[in-house]
Design brief:
heterodimer, A: about 400 residues, alpha/beta, 7-stranded parallel β-sheet, 5-stranded parallel β-sheet, B: about 260 residues, Rossmann fold, 9-stranded mixed β-sheet, two-stranded antiparallel sheet, about 30% strand
Chain lengths: ~400, ~260
């Protein structure tokens, strides 16, 4: 069994040896340093104090990674209209597949979608597997999981990428659990090693830390990625690759869920589509002051977004939230006003092309990612800016 | 009706950071709290209990200190609390966490409904709910924003999707993950605090579970491993401008014009 071994005799300063853990998972009990069940296996202790803490690998049988080939992308769609995150994932999959010389697959599940699969052939996918069945019209978890399972058993992809959409975040964990394999949510960087191990990087532990995660002895390796994290690949004029229709037993598509009604929501332009975004943060003192932010956005032909506290205060709508628990945006221009820049927020906007940040605290974290960090009072700067534009 | 709510103790407002120059970890405070999204899950269970007779359990996994969040759940009106705590559960990733919770849930009683919060503030993955449902072989609905109806055989909910709201009728037993704001969570009550002061939290250890293979738990049961942690990088133009409000407003305006946004 894998564990962290403590070399007690190398402990010179007990307090320091305990303090190395950011999660308080190291205790001193009965004259011994002990690792408690609060351990998150972040390996920080092993890295910082290698003479005391040693990571001992378990002696599990190694899986045969050669049995698993190809990178699969789940096609996220509503009634056949493909969500753009799908193309972004295909672009990433193609880059990685080239490195390990393996094919890129798409998995397309739904009803009356066959004819839409053709669009994907313009992006250099090698093979598209389509499950087109009436029972798959609405998204219900059991039939979708069954089709996904059928695909994995048939194709045995080494990596599966799923868009971090509402649907993807419900479906991917379900399928990953069925195969008892790993899934890393909301990756911001992905790469592949020659032995097909997937390097997954994401913000972790709720703090300002990035974690590099891998899935060394399980296949397939699942990862979800939010919309607008990766670039959209060029659309080829010519088509390539093939479409394969897949069969699945009717009894596998039985569901304990009945969809009674689907109500369309009023279509509002989402901040993800905006080229220019002005963000209102905690530095905004009163709801009324949002008027100034609206004015600035209007002048620039952009949209207004906000951070979590303003939504919690009820001043702005949840659909305007930027961050890991909100939307990920990648506009050409973003101006943050009174935003401190927590990693959760930054992860949702740091791929923007031009970042202006206005904050009166010169130490605010937002200045680490801003291209143009403007240190000053937004109540003085913004009215002046509006006047000058 | 038996309802089980999954809750988690998460770090308080403090954050773990890495000092970029020294590489040392900076710890600010060690306070903890209940994952705020779990309050909505508990409140949903309480609202159901008000209309139907129901027994509400909460279950959590963590070190013994996590008993605190279960005590807090008692103050909101929860009947029974269980804590999965064992060194063998340490180092669990999403899969091993979900599996251990599913084993613990089976141990408690015959459940009709399991409710989870949307996600946790420290893990931020929103994966544990769906994975528990898979291990229990029951349907799940994520992003539930409203409970329309519940009876002894099924629950009808509104699921919030980006472009639509779907009304789904799901056979019990099932698992739902609820959106923030489904109901306004009640505050812990002082009266209940006194009334439940002596109520125990039942601890569940590895030996209590049906699955006696330690390789399915904790670090060994975790397919994902953390290789390294590091501070986020930024390698772009990184200027800092200082001056009066007037100067800065003008400077931004000039830059925006130069970049052709105006």
């Amino acid at each position: 069994m894998a564990f962290i071994r403590v070399h007690q005799k190398n402990v010179k300063n007990v307090e320091e040896a305990i303090k190395v853990c950011p999660f308080n998972a190291i205790e001193f009990k009965d004259d011994q340093i002990e690792i408690t069940s609060a351990c998150k296996m972040c390996n920080i202790c092993v890295k910082k104090m290698p003479d005391i803490y040693e990571f001992v690998e378990g002696k599990k049988g190694e899986i045969n990674k050669n049995e698993w080939k190809g990178i699969a992308v789940y096609v996220d769609h509503v009634e056949g209209n493909i969500h753009p995150v799908t193309y972004e994932l295909i672009g990433k999959a193609k880059k990685m597949a080239k490195k390990i010389n393996q094919p890129v697959y798409c998995l397309f599940i739904g009803s009356n979608i066959k004819h839409k699969a053709k669009n994907l052939l313009h992006y250099g996918v090698d093979e598209i597997f389509v499950y087109d069945r009436e029972e798959l019209y609405d998204f219900r978890i059991e039939p979708y999981t069954a089709a996904f399972e059928n695909f994995i058993n048939k194709v045995k992809p080494t990596i599966v990428l799923v868009g971090g959409t509402t649907l993807g975040r419900s479906l991917a964990p379900r399928v990953a659990a069925r195969f008892r394999t790993g899934l890393t949510a909301d990756c911001t960087i992905l790469d592949v090693k020659e032995n097909t191990d997937l390097d997954q990087i994401r913000p972790a532990f709720g703090g300002n830390i990035m974690a590099h995660i891998h899935t060394p002895n399980h296949r397939p390796q699942f990862a979800t990625v939010r919309y607008k994290i990766f670039d959209t690949p060029e659309k080829n004029k010519t088509k390539s690759g093939k479409i394969t229709e897949c069969k699945i037993d009717k009894d596998k598509l039985i569901s304990r869920i009945k969809v009674l009604e689907v109500k369309k929501k009023e279509k509002v332009k989402s901040i993800e589509e905006a080229d220019v975004i002005v963000v209102a943060g905690n530095g905004i003192k009163k709801e009324k002051d949002l008027e100034m932010i609206n004015q600035l956005a209007d002048k620039l032909g952009g949209m207004v977004a906000s951070t979590r506290p303003l939504i919690e205060a009820g001043w702005t709508d949840a659909r305007q939230q930027i961050g890991l628990s909100g939307r990920t945006v990648k506009p050409k221009l973003i101006i943050t006003c009174g935003v401190s820049g927590s990693i959760q927020f930054v992860a949702g906007m740091n791929n923007s092309e031009n970042i202006f940040a206005i904050n009166d605290n010169p130490k605010a974290q937002i200045f680490d990612v801003a291209n143009y960090g403007v240190v000053g009072d937004l109540y003085e700067i913004i009215p002046e800016l509006i006047k000058k534009l | 009706m038996n309802i089980t709510v999954c809750i988690k103790q998460v770090p308080g407002t403090s954050e773990v950071e890495i000092d970029e120059t020294t590489g040392n970890l900076i710890r600010e405070g060690i306070d903890t709290k209940m994952n705020p999204y779990d309050l909505y899950a508990i409140e949903t269970a309480m609202k159901i209990k008000e209309k139907n007779s129901a027994n509400i359990n909460v279950i959590s996994m963590g070190p013994p200190q996590a008993n605190d969040v279960i005590k807090e759940a008692y103050m909101m009106g929860v009947n029974n609390g269980y804590l999965l705590t064992d060194k063998k559960f340490a180092g669990a990733d999403v899969l091993a966490t979900s599996y251990a919770l599913s084993q613990g849930i089976k141990k408690i009683n015959n459940f009709d409904l399991i409710i989870c919060g949307k996600m946790t503030t420290d893990g931020d993955t929103a994966q544990v709910g769906p994975e528990i449902a898979e291990f229990l072989d029951i349907p799940h609905v994520a992003n539930v924003k409203k409970i329309m109806d519940i009876n002894s055989t099924s629950i009808t909910v509104e699921m919030d999707m980006p472009e639509t709201v779907e009304i789904q009728e799901v056979k019990l037993p099932c698992l739902i993950t609820v959106e923030k704001d489904i109901y306004q969570p009640r505050l812990p009550s002082f009266k209940l605090k006194l009334a439940t002061a002596k109520r125990k939290v039942k601890n569940i250890s590895f030996n209590d579970l049906d699955d006696d293979n330690p390789e399915n738990f904790g670090l060994d049961g975790s397919p994902t491993q953390v290789l390294d942690v590091f501070p986020p990088k930024s390698d772009r133009i990184n200027e800092k401008w200082e001056g009066t409000g007037k100067e800065l407003g003008e400077r931004i305006s000039n830059k925006l014009k130069k970049l052709k946004f105006v």
